[in-house]
């Protein structure tokens, strides 16, 4: 079916294609200030590569794409052939982008870090508690009119305070989740990451000293040497790795079997990090085990049986879905494209907040292949 496109700033001299409507106005103002005519697809269907190439046409300066689209070498070659020099993903993750393909086409690839760190971690916390305290099951029970009065054994779940939380992938989001669980619920933290997160460890050490001063029980943070060790030790495990060949099915049947029978597994990273069919089997066999999932292996589909399980909480990839964050992501994606088109340098600070209000810095907030393109 033919898709409808809306055009913003029709007289702009540069042409930028945006494959989905984005929230807020700031992103449009940024592109308009860079003299861009912005063409935005109004359909909620996922665009195919052919449809995107069709829209790029014979002249296009830049594009903003979605994590649901496969931005492969062919697409980047088409963009480059149309004179395009800038692309940004509307996401921090970019497993949908063939970065070497973009680099070959000499196209910088932007992403949107920094604005979804806490927001995504908050959703991981929400899933942890929804799963562990059986919120969705109990909600369904109430709506079905089945509540006939308080009972001592009704919907008993897990206690978090003083337990052990495990984080796999202690980058920005994983560390934020770890801090929230330590600070909020006095949990001990174990994590696996190829690199130590010294700031996270220091935070827990300082926080522990503070709790002790108040007469409380200290908390600890330990980096373990393997994923297996974290799975075996933690009461709750939250996944925060990027998806690549090394993390595909990182959590499989064998590793699930290492987890405590009443543990909780949270995934807000990418679906294929978990072997979802194995998770379905595991949750069926261990009714006290819980999972909270924001992402799915074959999104938007779920593996057969997943939706029937009471011990799984599922939401549709909304971990970054707050107004502030989604508008912030739009701003960063637009700023990436506008900066590249205007020949601005890279922003050399992890703090991207200056892009979100006031005058937009004359810099590209985040370009993932900058080093390969000799941009830094
Ligand atoms: C991302 O940004 O990678 C999320 O999955 C969507 O916000």
Helix/strand order? EEHEHEHEHEHHEHEHEHEHEHEEH
Structural class, from secondary structure content? Answer: alpha/beta
User: Strand sequence of the main sheet, in spatial order?
Assistant: 9-8-7-10-11-12-13
- Anisotropy-based shape: globular
DSSP helix count?
12
Count of individual beta strands = 13
CATH topology of the largest domain: Rossmann fold
Ligand inventory reads: (2R)-2,3-dihydroxypropanoic acid
Q: What is the multimeric organization of the chains shown?
A: single chain
In percent, how much strand structure appears in the residues?
A: 5-15%
Determine the fraction of residues in helical runs and give it as a percent range: 25-40%
Specify Rg, calculated over alpha carbons: 22 Å
The biggest sheet amounts to: 7 strands, parallel
- Average residue pLDDT: 98
What is the correct CATH architecture of the largest domain? 3-Layer(aba) Sandwich
Uncertain stretches of 5 or more adjacent residues = none
CATH class designation of the largest domain: Alpha Beta
N-to-C CA distance = 43 Å
Q: Return the domain count.
A: 2
CATH fourth-tier homologous superfamily of the largest domain: NAD(P)-binding Rossmann-like Domain
Question: Would you spell out the secondary-structure blueprint of this structure?
Answer:
Elements: E1 5-8, E2 14-18, H1 26-33, E3 36-41, H2 49-56, E4 62-65, H3 73-81, E5 86-89, H4 99-104, E6 109-110, H5 117-132, H6 135-143, E7 164-168, H7 172-185, E8 188-192, H8 198-213, E9 221-223, H9 227-233, E10 236-239, H10 253-256, E11 264-267, H11 276-285, E12 290-293, E13 312-314, H12 323-341
Parallel strand pairs: 2-3, 2-4, 4-5, 5-6, 7-8, 7-10, 8-9, 10-11, 11-12, 12-13
Antiparallel strand pairs: 1-3
Helix pairs in contact: 1-12, 2-3, 5-7, 7-8
Bound molecules: (2R)-2,3-dihydroxypropanoic acid (DGY).
The site of (2R)-2,3-dihydroxypropanoic acid has 6 residues, from loops.
């Amino acid at each position: 079916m033919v898709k409808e496109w809306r055009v913003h700033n029709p007289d702009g001299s540069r042409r930028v294609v945006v494959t989905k409507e984005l929230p807020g106005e700031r992103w449009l103002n940024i592109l308009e200030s860079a003299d861009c005519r912005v063409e935005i697809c109004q359909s909620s269907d996922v665009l195919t590569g052919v449809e995107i190439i069709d829209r790029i046409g014979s002249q296009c300066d830049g594009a903003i794409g979605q994590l649901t689209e496969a931005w492969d070498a062919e697409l980047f070659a088409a963009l480059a052939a149309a004179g395009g020099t800038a692309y940004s993903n509307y996401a921090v993750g970019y497993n949908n982008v063939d970065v070497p393909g973009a680099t070959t086409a000499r196209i910088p690839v932007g992403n949107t870090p920094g604005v979804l760190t806490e927001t995504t971690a908050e959703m991981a916390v929400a899933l942890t508690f929804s799963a562990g305290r059986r919120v969705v099951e109990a909600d369904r029970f109430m709506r079905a009119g089945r509540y006939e009065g308080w009972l001592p054994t009704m919907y008993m779940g897990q206690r978090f305070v003083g337990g052990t939380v495990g984080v796999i992938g202690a980058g920005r989001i994983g560390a934020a989740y770890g801090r929230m669980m330590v600070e909020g619920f006095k949990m001990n933290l174990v994590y696996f990451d190829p690199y130590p997160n010294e700031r996270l460890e220091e935070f827990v050490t300082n926080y522990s000293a503070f709790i002790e001063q108040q007469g409380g029980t200290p908390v600890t943070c330990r980096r373990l040497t393997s994923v297996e060790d974290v799975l075996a030790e933690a009461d709750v495990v939250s996944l925060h790795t990027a998806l690549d060949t090394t993390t595909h099915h990182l959590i499989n049947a064998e590793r699930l079997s290492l987890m405590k029978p009443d543990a909780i597994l949270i995934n807000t990273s990418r679906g294929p990090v978990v072997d979802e069919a194995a998770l379905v089997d595991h949750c069926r066999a261990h009714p006290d085990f819980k999972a909270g999932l924001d992402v799915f292996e074959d999104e938007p589909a779920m593996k057969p049986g997943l939706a029937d399980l009471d011990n799984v909480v599922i939401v549709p990839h909304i971990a970054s879905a707050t107004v502030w964050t989604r508008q912030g992501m739009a701003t960063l994606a637009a700023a990436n494209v506008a900066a590249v088109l205007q020949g601005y340098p890279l922003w050399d600070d992890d703090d991207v907040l200056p892009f979100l209000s006031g005058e937009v810095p004359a810099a590209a907030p985040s370009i993932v292949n900058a080093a390969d393109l000799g941009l830094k």
